[in-house]
Amino acid sequence: MATYQLNVNGQSRQVNVDPSTPLLWVLREELKMTGTKYGCGISACGACTVHVDGIATRSCVVPVSLVGDRPIVTIEGIGTDAVGRVVQEAWIEKDVVQCGYCQSGQIMSAVALLKATPKPTDMNIEESMGGNLCRCATYVRIREAIKSAAEQMK
Amino acid sequence: MWANHRLLLPVFLLMLVVFVSCIALSTRASIETADKGSAADPKLADGLAAWEQVYSVLTSPRCINCHTATTYPQQGDDRHRHFANVIRGPAGKGVPGLNCVSCHQSENADSTGVPGGSNWHLAPLSMRWQDTNDRPLSSGAVCRALVDRSRNNGLNASGLLKHHEEEPLVLWAWNPGRRPDGTMRTLPPLTHAEFIAATRTWVDAGTPCPRAR
Questions:
Q1: Superfamily of segment(s) A78-152
Q2: Which of the listed residues A10, A73, B141, B157 has the most CB atoms within 10 Å of its CB?
Q3: In chain A, which residues have their Cβ closer than 8 Å to the Cβ of B95?
């Protein structure tokens, strides 16, 4: 076991866990922040996506020992970000969610896309969101919401 | 007079045949001399042999999986397409939302089976060592790509040696970590020390490349 001081959504949080513990389990089990979801556990579906130092990161495969002092932002904190807020509003406007399980990861990836590419093309959206799976197949509404958010950001 | 003229033509033709034969034999002799000279030059021969050792490492999965000619990296000893729809992106580092570093951290994550190293990324397309059907290029083609400073980020021979000696992602090939099932990833066919020794021999010989394409 080891003690880590993590910066999560702007707050310093201390955890005492095995160094090999994936960040996802630290968030969910230690910090009780269950907005980030466990999907596949092998970084194949994107449900566990959070931001680490601004990079969309698959928290299920990143041991907490490798996070260091990089700031972490989760779905619980993304609404305080200007782009994050716009994306969440677009998600509501377009009624994107069906079952909702993958949507926190979808939103985190969409925010990362829009921060880097404020006017994404269909190709940009397909490439950036291609690693986020949705078994309800809400892909068309996800694309509409990203475009709507991009319009709002102008 | 007329009899003398009738003799002139055969004599001229005979001289022409002798002349052409001499030229041909002379040319062939010079070519054979050059080839024998190449093969007989021990430094050159050693350099070419060392290159083949270097090539065996460069085309091993730990190296060539990130030297693709396509829009995606490969993974595994069978060099299959990287899963999760990962793509190259404009700088070889993926795209926003799906960067290489979205999973690959600064070091191997053995508990989750994800390899890692400093600045994880694909080699640029100018340094592709495969064709677009994911087949490794020939020894000569990879060699020529490696020594072409317009394609290799401006590295001269000593720069190539230093790259093999020190580049973190090159060194990673000998410390590739564990697969998700806990087993160790396969190493390149040479040790890093053997790889450096072979590179040095090749560099000292003038970085010769096999002639075949």
A1: [2Fe-2S]-binding domain (1.10.150.120)
A2: A73
A3: 113, 124, 127-128
Pick the CATH number of A2-73 from 3.30.70.790, 1.10.132.100, 3.10.20.30, 3.40.50.920: 3.10.20.30
Range of the domain at B143: 46-204
> Helical H runs in A8-102?
23-25, 82-93
Put simply, the answer to whether B97 touches A66 (Cβ < 8 Å) is no
Q: How many Å from the N-terminal Cα to the C-terminal Cα in chain B?
A: 61
pLDDT in tens, chain B (213 residues): 444 555 565 555 555 555 545 444 443 433 333 333 455 689 999 999 999 999 999 999 999 999 999 999 999 999 999 999 999 999 999 999 999 999 999 999 999 999 999 999 999 999 999 999 999 999 999 999 999 999 999 999 999 999 999 999 999 999 999 999 999 999 999 999 999 999 999 999 999 999 876
Q: Interface pTM (ipTM) of the complex?
A: 0.96
CB contact under 8 A, B112 and A110: no
The answer to whether A110 contacts B97, with C-beta atoms less than 8 Å apart, is: yes
The answer for residues whose C-beta is within 8 angstroms of residue A60's C-beta and 6 or more apart is A22, A23, A24, A38, A39, A40, A41, A42, A43, A48, B112
